[in-house]
Design a protein that fits this description.
The complex is a heterodimer of chains A (205) and B (336). Chain A has 205 residues and is of the alpha+beta class. Chain A has helices spanning 21-94, 98-108, 150-163, 165-168; strands at residues 113-126, 133-145, 171-181, 192-200, 203-204. Chain B has 336 residues and is α/β, with parallel strands linked by helices. Classes of the chains: A alpha+beta (205), B alpha/beta (336). Chain A binds chain B through residues 1-9, 12-17, and chain B through 71-72, 75, 84, 114, 116-118, 120, 132-134, 136, 141, 145, 148, 150, 152-160, 163-164, 166-167, 170-171, 195, 200, 202, 205, 327-328, 330-331, 334-335.
Chain lengths: 205, 336
Amino acid sequence: MNLRVDLILPSEQRNPSLFTPAFVVKVIAFSIPVLIGASLAFVAVHVWNKTAAVDKLERKWLEAEPKQEMAIRIAAELNVNRRLKEELDGWRRSQIVWHTQLAALPRLVPPAIQLVELNTDQVLLTLEKDKAMARSFTMQIRGRSVGKGSDLAVDELEQNLRTFSVFATQLESVEVAAFSADTSKNASPDDRLFEIRCRYKPRAF
Amino acid sequence: MASFKDILDKVKQGPADVVGIDVRRTVVLAVRMRRVGATTSLSAAAALPRANEDSEEARKPMELPAKLRAPHAAIAIEGSEATVKLLMLPGLHDGGLESRLVTGLGIRDTSGRRIGYKVITEGHGRQESLVLAAAVAEDEISGALSFFPSGRPAPHSVEIAGLAAMTAFTNGPGMSFKAKAVASLNIGERCSYFAVFSKGIPVLCQRLELGTHSILERVQESLGVDAQTAMGVLTDGAFDVSDIAGDVAGQMLNRIAVSRDYVERREACRIRSLFISGSVEAGRDLITPMQTAFDVERWNPFEHASVPEGVLGEDIGDPARFAAAIGACQATLEAK
């Protein structure tokens, strides 16, 4: 039992707890604008930083763009030149050094033989082994063999072509393609006309 | 099935940790009490000096020591111009209670006053209700509330100190007088409260415009000393001022005796015991003459509360002064 005549009004009573509904509302009312403000400030700073970075990159790009264009052009030229060089190297690798062949040829020819005509030719082919493009050369030698033993002289020339190192290393085949009597007006009965075909080994590009 | 309101009422608990503050003119008496389950115990008590009530300092927010800083404050004020009456009102729920309280209190002008009441017993049918009503100046209430404008403690209640002391009495010595009539007197500074309880129910509650200040003024006039010296004279008992205080004590005894006779006739009872609290030491010259009419007992409110050892220091002074602060705490801890 108590004799309290309470004279306080409900509006004068305070909640001693820190987390009163009014306090929570105040905290929310304060923190939401602060959070929004902080977020906006963060976004603004972020945008400002990114804009500055973009400006910096654009300035760098303006400086670098001509260099890049030049570099692209030079790279393209380099590629063209490289391809050209490779092509030329290919042609160089696949060529026959004709001056050494021609210089060596007189030393193989027996005295009874007179060379009349020499033709060379080439065809392009694909090697079966590695499917590489290659050049295959042929050399056609026409001549006249004089006097008795003409056939022996032609055989000797054929044999020399097979064995002489300058040719032997490069030739794939040597064959006498034609051997016939010389029917010209000044020819003796022993004189003969002949044709030897030499096929060189295919040379890859 | 229990309604939502019932469940809410069960969940809703009143304060369990409260500091009772009895704001006096020269001192603030504070008591902190806690309720754990059904047990209520005192955890701190202090008599804090207060600056002169007319100074700016006295109106500043109150800084309580940490041990007294409970979440809630039950404030007891003197009620210097208060009107307190125990009313018998028929038909409590008939409406117009406010106007009937004003009439019952005998107040003509209610402006600047706040009126409160407590139903002691509720009558049913034609039975009258016993209502304790009080009117206190708004300024005094707002002045007391301004001591605790923020933080801890938060004001939970404001009541008249003399009535709070009666609450402490009902929870103390009054408990032993459930079948008999008993009187209680709380001596204040400018006013005192006299109440008679019969079978545990207050049957009379009277405000007496006499207190220690009345004797103090006489001592000041007679001895030609200041208020502080006069208070020293009253409390240390070095001078016999019974002759000077005799006039005041006689007035008080007369009024109490008249009230007692009235109650004894109306309630057909005999009142012998008078329990005195409040400024007992300063008001010893008021108490002495009463021993001729009553079996006077000065009671210590701390003896009727659960007080752990070491809580009460030497500096609390006259323990009887704390009755109002303890009563304010008890009423708060009792309320749900």
